[in-house]
Write a structure and sequence with these properties.
Elements (H helix, E strand, L loop, with lengths): L1 E6 L3 E6 L2 E6 L9 E3 L3 E3 L2 H12 L5 H13 L3 H12 L5 H7 L22 H16 L1
Helix pairs in contact: 1-2, 1-3, 2-5
Length: 140
């Protein structure tokens, strides 16, 4: 089952078999070394996290906080994500703004309900506390 969500110059988004797939074109060089068969390539998880960090500075969506929670909890430190975002976005990325976003949940948009993988459900307060702690660890 396939459903077209967005078809614009800079973005194309589909839902395919209940998975949202989004293709975005923007003015930054993003390496995409992960290959799926011979059809498509994708950025590394660290690069995707850096893109999320950059996006969080412009659009406070709850889903980005949830994504960042799982990235920082299981894979990379806040510092790793910051370094990658600085590498990709240069002066267009503000480390201070990103760190503040991870601790400030005012005006966060919850446009849709988050669907967690079975066994990975996490409460809103746990996410907020965890991200706040990780930012403080790096700041000290």
């Amino acid at each position: 089952k396939r459903q077209l969500l967005v078809d614009e110059d800079e973005q194309l988004a589909y839902v395919l078999n209940e998975v949202k797939i989004k293709f975005v074109n923007f003015g930054y060089k993003v390496e995409h070394p992960i290959k799926f068969n011979t059809i498509i390539t994708a950025p590394s998880l660290l690069t995707l996290a850096a893109i999320k960090a950059h996006e969080m500075g412009n659009d406070k969506k709850w889903e980005n906080f949830v994504d960042m929670y799982f990235v920082v909890k299981g894979f990379f430190s806040v510092g790793d994500v910051v370094k990658e975002a600085q590498r990709i976005f240069g002066s267009d990325f503000s480390e201070d703004k990103f760190r503040n976003q991870l601790q400030n949940f005012e005006n966060v948009k919850q446009e849709k309900e988050i669907e967690f993988a079975e066994g990975n459900e996490v409460g809103e307060e746990e996410i907020k506390e965890f991200l706040g702690e990780k930012v403080k660890e790096v700041s000290e």
